[in-house]
Amino acid sequence: MNASYIISIARKLGCSIFLLPEDITEVNQKMILTLTASIMYWFLKQPVEERPSGASDSENGSQSETISNSTMDDTASESSIEENGTR
Question: Which InterPro entries does its entry note (predicted)?
Answer without folding.
Answer: CH_dom, CH_dom_sf, Fimbrin/Plastin
